[in-house]
Structure formats: C-alpha cells, structure tokens
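Session log. Operator J.P. requested a structure for one protein chain; no other inputs attached. Running the standard single-chain path with token output.
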Amino acid sequence: MRGLEAIKAVLSEQIRGYRALLELLQRERICLIGLNGPEVEQVAKEKDTILLKLRLFEEERLRLTREWGAQAGIKSDLRLKDIAEMSGDRDLSCLRSQLLSLLQGVGELNDLNRTFTERTLSFTRGALERLQPACCAAPRHPTAAVISREV
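Structure written below.
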C-alpha cells in the first residue's frame, strides 16, 4: 500500500529530526554548564529550525494517517499503533518504537536543561539582589536641596 510507505518515510524523517534535536540538546546542556551564552544562543537558533521541520513532518504524518484511515473506511483519527496492528507492518511498529524512545529522551534532556537554566537564573538573580544595594543606590548630591515645593 503506497500510503503506508509514505507514512513510514515521514516517520523516518521525524526520527532523523529528533536524533538531531537530541544531539542539540546535549550540546546545549554542555553550553549551559559551561555558561557559554553565545553558543547557547546559536543552539537555540538551530533548535528553532529543527523544531519547525519537525512540526511540518508531524502535520504531514497526521495528514497521511487520516488519508490511510479514510481509504480503510475509518472516519476517526488513527494512532500509529492502530495502523501498525491493522496493517501487520512490523517496520511501522519498529519506527513507532524508535520515535517513542527518541521523544522520551528529548523530553528528559529538555527537562534537565530547563533545570540547569532555572538554577542559573536563580543564582544570577540572587547575586544581583545582593549587589544591587551596594552599587545601585540613588546618587546623593550634597549641594542640592529642596527650597520650596510651592509654585
């Protein structure tokens, strides 16, 4: 069935995209730990590009699964697991498992990076709060005085 091959092709592209995202998240973690701001910004730009591609692949996958379901006479949205079971395609099951594993890894690494970012921000805010009273006090002008507020 041609529709099934198209679904598997999109899944393969998604798997490649999520692997690239996982590598970027690992690079981001190293940059966050090393407090390498410019590199974190570069990684963020690369992540945005990959995420845009992944969103397009997901939209295409959803379109193809709806189309496959319509051809099979099913009106509701199908999950990949349902299609794999209905079609008996072991390759589709394998691709689905790889994708799920990658999604779990991306989620875990993203949570870890979020924790690093939050801790760094908390540390920075704390340091700024301690420094602010000493360095940012309102300047005093010993020769200035308010004579009258009446106009």
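Operator note: The radius of gyration is 27 Å.
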